[in-house]
Amino acid sequence: MVNPALVDPATIRATVAEAWIRGHPLLRTYRTLYAQALDDADPGYVGGFGVFRHTARPATPADTDAVTPDNDTLPSQAWLDLRAEPWVLSVPAQDRYHVFAVHELDTLHAGLIGSRTTGQDAGDYLVAGPDWQGEPPPGLKGVIRTATRLVALVGHTRLTGATPADLAALRAVQEQYRLRPLHEYAGTPAPAPAPEPVWPVWRDEVLESVEFLTFLDFLLGFFPLTDGLPPAETGLRGRLTDLGIDGRGEFEPAVLPLEVRAEFDRGIADGRARLTRALAELRDSAQLFGTREQLGADFLRQAVAAELGPYGLPAEEVWYGRWAADSEGRRPPNASDRDHVIRFAPDALPPARFFWSATVYALPDHRLVDNTLDRYSVGGHTPGLVRDADGGLTLYVQHKRPANADHSANWLPAPDGPFAVVLRIHGPEDSVLDGRWQPPPLTPR
Q1: 327 burial class (0-12, 13-18, 19+ CB within 10 angstroms)?
Q2: What is the CB neighbour count within 10 angstroms for residue 328?
Q3: Closest-CA residue to 359 (of 127, 58, 126, 131)
């Protein structure tokens, strides 16, 4: 436990602030994990670890459990406990765009399986945690090693159209995604099960109090210090150990001296303020997501990503652009009194290997916008779009349906209030990644 004689107040406050930023993605992950894999009374419970939950229909404004939902692809999600042994993911051959990301506890991804990285053929892929020392069995197409003992497996399979036939075809693909523990796949004896932890009951208010660090202490037990972690990680862990937060799950804030508890509270407030500022100052969401090699030392960027949508994909898989302000600097843009347009010049549509889309979200909750067309995004696959006379494409971002028929065909419905537009380019070309291609402005009219 903390010894005030050994740790000065300024160090306590600074360490707790850094820990709050660093721990935010882990606690956001645990909130979802607890609901889906541990709490059998939660409506989102899927049946425990190693069980897929497939979403077989597009999201609507009534679906409030997802932040910035993406209707271009439908998700398949499972949680894996890798302490006792690895798991094997099997995917079928298919001609649809798909991707599976193995997200570690802090939401960084350890590897990708899918159309861009491994192709469209069928294959079996091993997901192994930091403690496994075995040899992969023959027949695998790939092995993904993780830094954490608990991981989320998040898949996305393209929905080419919301017709009953396409939804049925997509469901048939999802049903062929298969998860097996390694012993079942290899036909070997099952290992001894890992001990069952006392999982702390999730409550949203944990994010606001010193109890945040109790949860962080528990979760660090699933995130051992191993070779390859950045110095920022190991340095923070050492400072946290000085405060009694060492991954054993025994941190008890109730016994803190009052003066020490006050510094903990100030540090948490500092951490929250840093995240709030970073969210307000965010100009480019394209580089928020990636591997530990790409983002492992940038804790603030990970916290921002976790707040906006914790399971995003790296830019080379999906490039994310965000119209968070209009061309006149209004932030966020507001459709209650202004209509807006996004005009792509001729031959300047988003350069995508697979496909692209622009989706409107109502702020501040980043929810889909209810509208008479049940249209939540527009993209290269949207039927009936009308090109401009010069071959360009103009999207009309406004609350009311345009009276002009051509404008109505290109209508991207906005809420009667503040909004943001997110651009997704699946399989971006090099011109997107290196900045030669830039999205056009969101222009009031």
Answers
A1: middle
A2: 12
A3: 58
